[in-house]
UniProtKB/TrEMBL annotation:
Domain named UspA: residues: 7-137, 144-277
The family this protein is said to belong to: Belongs to the universal stress protein A family.
PANTHER family: STRESS RESPONSE PROTEIN NHAX, UNIVERSAL STRESS PROTEIN RV2623
Protein name from the UniProt record: UspA domain-containing protein
Length: 284
């Protein structure tokens, strides 16, 4: 079972939208009885524009004051860090050095200098972070009550399911698989065959998940169509609060999850997105 007992790393750009990530990080810290490290990174090119040195130093001090003000009075143990450099590299270093079990980030929509986790930065963080990355979109008013786990039912998809099981009761989890039939074979009989095969693979996948032995199983949902399109549509229809995906798999949805599919989910999903890497066995 994945554990979120280590510190939670909150990546913040100090924007108002970033408050959503902050609130979710605090909710999760209370849920798992852990602490939070709030990290703001001033990107290197921004620091260069702030020369002379005392201007850069004032920017760092101001960022620290803003963080401390935003975090004042919370009932969670929070450590504040302000660093200068490459955001992705520093986020990974801080997470690894402190044994963080999760990185929580928001998504801002503007391109103001100095903001972190915009566009490709999120994508790079997801690719390189050893800890799961939670991209927060919705306001965090309560613990998650529903999760949709994208899966191709291979070993590469198991870490995502384990992360979901650590966050929510099994009854609140739906395992989702999308299959795309060959262009020349779109008839109803063929579709039913693909669906039956996928459902059988899902049942075997759940039976071989040790954490589920003797327990209730998540719901299974199989749909035909382009992976990110049908997944996002289903999440929207069901008002799902969390979409969980892995970064590696043998076929189908997860084959390209760390590329175009994951990017599409982070950008277009109507809910928060948790991306869980499958680490090499030596690192597990």
């Amino acid at each position: 079972m994945h554990s979120f007992s280590g510190p939670i790393l909150l990546a913040t750009d100090l924007s108002a939208r970033g408050d959503r990530a902050l609130d979710r990080a605090m909710l999760l810290a209370r849920q798992f009885g852990t602490s939070v490290i709030a990290l703001h990174v001033i990107e290197s090119q921004v620091r260069a524009l702030l020369a002379p040195q005392h201007h850069a130093g004032e920017r760092e001090a101001q960022a620290r004051r803003t963080l401390l003000r935003d975090l004042d009075g919370l009932d969670v143990n929070v450590e504040v860090m302000v660093r200068c450099g490459d955001p992705v590299r520093l986020l990974r270093e801080v997470a690894d050095e402190n044994g963080c079990s999760l990185t929580v980030a928001g998504v801002a929509r503007d391109e103001t200098l100095g903001r972190i986790l915009l566009g490709t930065t999120v994508e790079k963080l997801v690719r390189e972070s050893t800890a799961p990355v939670l991209v927060v979109k919705r306001r965090a008013r309560r613990p998650y009550r529903s999760a949709l786990v994208a899966s191709d039912f291979s070993e590469g998809g198991r870490p995502a399911l384990r992360a979901a099981l650590a966050l929510l009761p099994v009854s609140d989890i739906t395992l989702f698989h999308a299959f795309d039939m060959p262009g020349s074979r779109k008839d109803e009989v063929t579709a039913k065959g693909f669906q039956r095969t996928a459902e059988e693979a899902a049942a075997q996948f759940l039976d071989s998940t040790p954490e589920l032995h003797g327990r209730e199983k998540p719901r299974i949902q199989v749909a035909a169509g382009l992976a990110e399109r049908v997944l996002i549509a289903y999440a929207d229809q069901t008002d799902c609060e969390l979409l969980v995906t892995g970064t590696h798999g043998a076929t189908g949805l997860m084959r390209t999850a760390i590329g175009s599919v994951a990017d599409a989910l982070i950008e277009k999903a109507p809910c928060d997105v948790l991306v869980v890497r499958q680490l090499p066995r030596a690192q597990v």
